[in-house]
Amino acid sequence: MPLTFGIAPDSWGVWDPKSPENPPWDRFLDDIESGGFVYVELGPYGYLPTDPGQLEDELGRRSLKMLAGTQISVMHTRSHRQAALNDARQIAELIAPLGAKFMVGLDGHSVGREEPRKLDPLQWREFITTSNEIGKLLAEEFDMTLVFHPHADGLVEYRDETYKYLADTDPRFVSLCLDTGHYEYRDGDSVDLFRDYAARIPFLHLKSVNPEILARVEAEDLGMAEAVALGVIAEPAAGKVDFPALRDAMEDVDFDGWAVIEHDIHPLPSFDVPLQIASRSKAYYESLGWSVIR
Known about the structure:
It is globular, with a radius of gyration of 18 Å. It has helices spanning 25-34, 52-60, 81-95, 121-142, 159-168, 180-185, 190-197, 211-220, 224-230, 243-252, 273-287, and strands at residues 3-7, 39-41, 65-73, 102-107, 145-148, 174-179, 203-206, 208-209, 233-234, 257-261. The protein contains eleven helices and ten strands. 44% of the residues are buried. The protein is of the alpha/beta class. The strands form two sheets. An eight-stranded parallel barrel has the order 1-2-3-4-5-6-7-10, surrounded by four helices.
């Protein structure tokens, strides 16, 4: 079954685009070229070059292609809506000319232990409106699809929140990035979600979760950053996500789409580790019969 694999800076420990702990961006691009990857996700804006000509040149000389942008914006208040739309436009103007098809949208609200995580009805309505407007802008002006990413410790992470988000947003403009690791870090079942909403899921982030470490995270009420540092994200063959069942569900609908191999890792133990994990993960997914389209 065809499934086009990409890779993302997140797998190289890039959370903050300006962190001095990040691997140099040219090292990241060299690594993914050497690993046989073709498609790349932009990652946090400002990590890869933001000059359009430079970015095109750096990708081109490595025979890499831009697959998706990554937008992290506050979306649940009306006062932040224009800023979120401006963020979408800025990123799309950089990557749409390079052939990018998707914008992975994440809510940029930092949820701390002292803050209420649930949105009230007004905030939820604003969240949905902003999502729809970003998706409309991307579709009509850039021929791109917004794929919203439910995220651990975010404002949409649990099963009921994810289903409500899909039910409330406009399917013409908003789709979903199913991150199998983040969704199953909480109470989600990736296979069930895909079967229920396959038509709204053109794009996936593939990773898994270590169930033993997850049990500790839940028992101690740890945050996602602490959980990642403990190693809660597992390589696909060793985690709780049922990838063979997901493959079967995708085959049932003749899914011919896009996926980014991810492995949340922070802090990065060594610049050599990410490519090793990405290569093993790619080999595992290919063993399931997912073939990479070049």
